[in-house]
Amino acid sequence: MTSKKLWLVVLAIVLVLGITAAGCSKGAKADSKTAESSGGDTGGKTAESGKTADTGGSKTAESNSAASSGGWTAVTNQPLGDSDINAIAFGKDKFVAGGSDGKMAYSPDGVKWTAVANSPFNRSIREIAWGKDKFVAVGDRGNMAYSSDGVTWTAVSENPFDNDQVDSVAWGNGTFVAGSYGYTATSTDGVTWTAVEVSGVEYIDAIAWGNGKFVAGESLLAYIIYSSDNGATWTKTESLSNKNFSTINAIAFGNGKFVAGYNGNMAISADGVTWTKVTQNIFNGSYYINAIAYADNKFVAVGDGGKMATSTDGVTWTAVNVDSLFEYTAIIVDSPALLHYHINAIAFGNGKFVAVGGHGKIAYSTGK
Asked: What is the mean pLDDT of residues 28-42?
């Protein structure tokens, strides 16, 4: 009997210490960036980008109540579960998102989501675009698929990329253009694709349409390339490496200019050919800029560590405090710390922006 009482006392002490440790986790904050492994399905956007936060083997239980910060609100039901979400697009009155493990979901308002029952992807989805009358999604191993409603998907039967990872796709001037390792591919319907070799570049990581041309960025030396004939031929311009760019992972067009970003830096261009570095360093030169969108008369840039910023002209930026909506608790050197998942993509539709990121996190804008 004495030994049983002693065992109960020890158990009570352990429980108290456990509760105390959990409570302390709210006090520590840190941002993390983890380089992706090129050998597996990492769920981040590229092998170089480091988009998926290292959870340190720890998972945080999701709250049943919506959190809000900086004019943004977190989505409480995570349709992709714990899978990282790498891509989002809006078309035909709905958002469509995709991520690691080939998971997909759709939503009419960015708030209530439904998982796609039969995704044609079995590895990570990297980008989604809407154009003409369909969504086009691209991802690992050259996988591509299309859908007229975002719910029922059909795999592209002839892979133009020879199983290479496809990381970018955009729509403009009646054409889809997708990018991969030294190649682009074009399609007018998202079904039949034609491969185009692009000399002098390693990996095409971001594509946007504007001002009469497609503009894309590559990863090795941060070259900008452009095409004025719907992706049939490409011209290489200056490298942004002399402007402290290690690669270009995000490009958007709006308000008469292109904005490009990656390793915490941004550059702007009216024609996609000549670029000027943005002097303001809103991402501190260290948080990678993973995506930029233009809508509702403003640019919104998102990136590592739950960072977000807005700008009406691409030059002057204002930080938006949403990192608390993309946070989790991990154990670092035996101590709990509050870290932040990366925001991987952003889209606008039905009057709101919706951002997606690591560990299935989704948040939507609730104000101007």
From this structure: 31
